[in-house]
Amino acid sequence: MKNVRLISRLDIKGPNLIKGIHLEGLRVVGSPIEFARKYHEAGIDEIIYMDIVASLYGRNGLHDIVASAAREIMIPLTVGGGIRSVDDVQLAFRSGADKVAINTAVVHRPSLVSQVARQFGSQAMVGSIEAKRAGVGRWEVCTDNGREKAGLDVVEWAREVEKLGAGELLLTSVDQEGTRKGFDLDLIAAVSGAVGIPVIASGGMGKPEDLVSSVEAGADAVAMAHVLHYKQYTVAELRDYAQRHSLGVRTAP
Amino acid sequence: MRTIVVDYGAGNVFSVLRALERAGAMATLTSDARLIENAERLILPGVGAFADGMKALEVRDLVPSIRAYIRHERPFLGICLGMQMLFSESDEFGASAGLGVLTGRVCRIPSQSVGGNLVKVPHIGWSTLTPGSSQSWDESALTGLPKDPAVYFVHSFHAVPDESEIRLAKCDFHGHELTAAIQRGAIFGCQFHPEKSGPVGLKILENFLSF
């Protein structure tokens, strides 16, 4: 039986939990701390906080939110968005993060992965990869929340990030993100088959069936936003569905 | 006399301290050898590589005080790497010596399932604890947990004790049995992270604090 982790991804802008609606822009959903608390109580396996404008404006405003959430929740907390240096990583951990997810800074300076892995352990270093389809079976690495192209091939870059010392990969499909039309399964299969570390699929989760198809494609964990934020499914419903389809998920707390 | 968390630069001490606070203990984080040896309860946290962890203890000259504390037979909790370092030796990045309080080795988790398929390592995620030997959970930190308790793991290595009886709990990893918790006398160690394991983890910490 294959295990899958159910992760809620909370995208943050300033003090707000927001959700990007594909081609429409951003909407405020609510308080990032209240939503994290609610998902924790409902039995979500992990939380990811992503400051989606930080790398654009060079800010680091997430730490107060992380510190408040970390006082209340006792599950793994990953923080990403705008982390540029070992000092930023240290600050994230001091605020209460367990792992950091880094994309843009790592594209510009790959050695940051090794530095973080050496100092804090591989388990704390999540390689964040934003992938945009660039033809059949080909994806290009993007930075700054999908706005800039990095000129790198996603599968080759995933292997490189693993080699540098990342403990897992957060793989976001820029094309599927915010669409609720399901994950980019070809992307998941291509990356998961190329690396020996766990892959978190992100972008496109719309219905419980997407859980099963993403795991069959090779995902080890699934990050979701819209389906939970807009109460289309509860954590319990998704977990029950996974169990009925022979996926190993945590027993309800 | 108090609850002491050993400060040797391990990355996750903040979440350990917060979880202990929730479990009802105001723990002190210190690298003071005298406070460590004379603690009422001692917690050795840890994440990361075995050799780096041992080196970090050695440069702070904490190995003798931790060994001395354990000889007093007062409650000890090792978490993840903090548990692994109790053993004699690890295979991680070439062989390196541990605290040697328990005999056994720390070995790499197989990257093949029992059926021969390639599997992802590290083992990251929630796995269910099951009894690892004939040792009862009743008197241990695992007492009073709900049925099929799931806890959070993140590790590439696991401990293989010479005395199989000290393996208090195990978990399944693609058909392999991994050591999830150990108990010998007042020494309790867990491979998983109780501080990240929700209500189950909180109960385990509360149990430990009641010893």
Q: How would you describe this protein?
A:
The complex is a heterodimer of chains A (253) and B (211). Helix content of chain A is 38%, strand content 29%. Chain A is built from 11 helices and 14 strands. An 8-stranded parallel β-barrel of chain A has the order 2-5-6-7-8-11-12-13, surrounded by 6 helices. In chain A, strands 1-14 form a two-stranded parallel ribbon. The longest helix of chain A has 11 residues, at 32-42. Chain B has a single domain (3-209), classed as Class I glutamine amidotransferase (GATase) domain (Rossmann fold, 3-Layer(aba) Sandwich), CATH 3.40.50. Helices cover 24% and strands 32% of the residues of chain B. Chain B contains 6 helices and 14 strands. Chain B has an 8-stranded mixed beta sheet. A 4-stranded mixed beta sheet of chain B has the order 6-5-7-11, with helices on one face. The mean pLDDT of chain B is 93.
Lay out the secondary structure.
The complex is a heterodimer of chains A (253) and B (211).
Chain A: E1 2-3, E2 5-13, E3 16-21, E4 25-30, H1 32-42, E5 46-51, H2 54-57, H3 63-72, E6 77-80, H4 86-95, E7 99-102, H5 104-108, H6 111-120, E8 125-133, E9 139-143, E10 148-153, H7 154-164, E11 168-173, H8 185-194, E12 199-202, H9 208-217, E13 221-224, H10 226-229, H11 235-244, E14 247-248
Parallel strand pairs in A: 1-14, 2-5, 2-13, 5-6, 6-7, 7-8, 8-11, 11-12, 12-13
Antiparallel strand pairs in A: 2-3, 3-4, 8-9, 9-10
Helix pairs in contact in A: 1-3, 3-4, 9-11
Chain B: E1 3-6, H1 13-22, E2 28-30, H2 33-37, E3 41-44, H3 50-59, H4 63-71, E4 76-79, H5 81-84, E5 87-90, E6 96-97, E7 102-108, E8 123-128, E9 130-131, E10 150-155, E11 157-161, E12 167-173, E13 176-184, E14 187-190, H6 198-209
Parallel strand pairs in B: 1-2, 1-3, 3-4, 4-14, 5-7
Antiparallel strand pairs in B: 5-6, 7-11, 8-10, 9-12, 12-13, 13-14
